[in-house]
Specification:
By secondary structure, this protein is mostly helical. The protein has helices spanning 15-42, 48-63. α1 packs antiparallel against α2.
Amino acid sequence: MSDGNFNRQLLPKTELSSGLRAGKAQMRTKAEQAFVSILAEDFPHLSDEQRKQLTDKFMDMLRK
C-alpha cells in the first residue's frame, strides 16, 4: 500500500517525461530570444562579442 510518496524511477516511461523536457527546451529558447531582443533594444552600444558573452552567461544561469 502506498503512503502517497513515490519514486519516479519506478514509474513506466511515458510521453509525459519527454513532453516536460520538450516544454523546458522551448521555454529556454523563448527566454534566450527575449534576452537577445532586450539587449538589442535597450543596449545598442554593446558589441557583438559583449552580447554573446552576456547571452552565454544568461543561458548558463538558466541551466543551473
